[in-house]
């Protein structure tokens, strides 16, 4: 179904196709100007307008921003006016002007120079790239991800980008560190860590359908980053059980931040995970939705060998819009491997 009815092709069998230039690569991307068939379907017009807006906010030097933001003649204004008029001709003319402007600013080095001044990626840019990647790989296959069994460890749910970005801030994750997501689903968080932080980023998932989609998403992510002119950290998406997958176990030994979305894990799996904390390095932070340290836990002689004695834990809040399975807020936990308390307790016992 066409998005506009005023175009010269209104009586044609196929809708019009346009090409959109990206700031980081000479090749562009083709879009058909169609309306989505389903309410949650891909919306090409929205994607184009959001892309242009993000480019104008993050890739355009100050001396050229007026080309996009001028309230009378700016490119962003022209797109909004075309949508308000439901005019295909105005929309395609705005695309032509945008493409010409981006091609010129790429050719004269303006965009490259501006990117050199940026030392961290703003979240809206990160979200746009992740949303594009997700829409082209995960969304068309989302039904296959709902084939899980309640009451088992194989339950699919996503932590959303703003929540993940807050976790990165709370753990002070840096580009020279290692991030691991245990139970990484379709790889959303692994990709976000590699993009937003630039760190080495690992994930492990055992559900077959999620693994298949994660592979597709990983390939699309690499291509998207090239289009946007960005170099993310190394991404490693592994298949299998994270308790036994050899590459993941080795990565855990080097990890600085480990994420475990254990909201739906069985008690048996949570207990099995605890044993892996023994091999993690001092200072490693483990982020989870359920605490691995029981409420009110104290180091005592009778529990001296428990791995949870190695953890100091902080409880934090997340707010509405943080997770895919509910709009309500909740709590999460950041446990840091810290052997000092156990060492002090053991030394105290020896001195008694």
TrEMBL record:
InterPro entries: Dot1, DOT1_dom, H3-K79_meTrfase, SAM-dependent_MTases_sf
Keywords: Chromatin regulator, Methyltransferase, Nucleus, Repeat, S-adenosyl-L-methionine, Transcription, Transcription regulation, Transferase
One GO MF term attached to the UniProt entry: histone binding
Subcellular location: Nucleus
Domain DOT1: 29-350
Enzyme class: transferase
Binding-site positions, S-adenosyl-L-methionine: 156-159, 179-188, 205
Gene Ontology CC terms, in alphabetical order: chromosome, telomeric region; nucleosome; nucleus
GO terms, biological process: DNA damage checkpoint signaling; DNA repair; methylation; subtelomeric heterochromatin formation
Superkingdom of origin organism: Eukaryota
EC number per UniProt: 2.1.1.360
Catalytic activity, reaction form: L-lysyl(79)-[histone H3] + 3 S-adenosyl-L-methionine = N(6),N(6),N(6)-trimethyl-L-lysyl(79)-[histone H3] + 3 S-adenosyl-L-homocysteine + 3 H(+)
Keyword Transcription in record: yes
KW Repeat (keyword) present: yes
PROSITE patterns: DOT1
Family indicated by similarity: Belongs to the class I-like SAM-binding methyltransferase superfamily. DOT1 family.
Its job: Histone methyltransferase that specifically trimethylates histone H3 to form H3K79me3. This methylation is required for telomere silencing and for the pachytene checkpoint during the meiotic cell cycle by allowing the recruitment of RAD9 to double strand breaks. Nucleosomes are preferred as substrate compared to free histone.
UniProt name for this protein: Histone-lysine N-methyltransferase, H3 lysine-79 specific
Species: Blastomyces silverae
